[in-house]
Specification:
By secondary structure, the protein is mostly helical. 39% of the residues lie in helices and 4% in strands. The protein is built from nine helices and two strands, in the order E-H-E-H-H-H-H-H-H-H-H. Helix 2 runs parallel beside helix 4. It is globular.
């Protein structure tokens, strides 16, 4: 009797790999978390948690203090960046493809643009920095959000949102991001950010909110008297 040869059945591949799409310059950073190797035969309790793709301060600071913005540094080091993002400024996460808005995601998108457009990296790195460069938040959006977050307990400096926006509209915008002196919105943003440092025995809001208020008492003024220091 001849044997009947049955076709060999091939068991379907039971592992899937799913990846979240992100900008090219960010892909390496998220590879470990955005690609989830899921065993379909394994119990549900052993599966990795779903990937949300939410921008974080740690991811942002790893990028902005790295090679992409090394010619236009926005922070002195990673720790300063992370404290600024999480504590002093408290930006919302946003999304990786966000082109505007005072968020972490917009700033990470600007870093991606700095990588893919190296001749304009200075412009994009300033957008990725503290002030948002009038793209990742308008000058006044960034300023007034810092005012609300860090100076609400300083009566001689605080302005509620509507009054803050009106006052900010009259500020000069010809400063440079990171300026510590000069009558500009950029200087005021710098000092209102420092006001968010509430750690230690001497919280900084009482010191720096007056420097960054609508009519500053020092630093963010023209013709500042000698002798002022932080």
């Amino acid at each position: 009797m001849s044997r009947i040869h049955r076709p060999t059945q091939i068991r379907p591949l039971r592992r899937l790999v799913s990846c979240t799409a992100v900008p090219a310059a960010l892909a390496w950073l998220l590879m470990a978390s955005a690609c989830v190797d899921t065993d379909l035969d394994a119990p549900r309790t052993s599966q990795a948690p779903p990937v949300t793709g939410v921008p974080t301060c740690s991811d942002y600071c790893l990028l902005v203090t790295g090679e992409a913005c090394s010619d236009t540094p926005q922070y002195t080091n990673f720790d300063v960046c992370e404290r600024t993002c999480e504590q002093f400024a408290g930006w919302e996460a946003g999304s990786f493809d966000q082109g505007r808005g005072n968020t972490i995601g917009c700033r990470m998108n600007s870093i991606d643009l700095a990588v893919t457009n190296p001749s304009e990296s200075a412009l994009y790195c300033d957008q990725a920095g503290l002030t948002g460069g009038n793209v990742c938040g308008s000058w006044c959006d960034v300023y007034c959000e810092l005012m609300e977050r860090n100076c609400a307990n300083v009566p001689n400096s605080y302005l509620p949102p509507g009054e803050c926006s009106s006052a900010c509209a009259g500020f000069r915008t010809d400063g440079t991001p990171g300026d510590q002196r000069g009558d500009s919105v950029q200087c005021r943003i710098y000092h209102l950010t420092l006001a968010g440092n509430l750690a230690g025995s001497a919280p900084q809001d009482q010191l720096h909110c007056p420097h960054g208020r609508a009519v500053p008492n020092a630093f963010c003024v023209d013709d500042e008297p000698d002798g002022h220091d932080h």
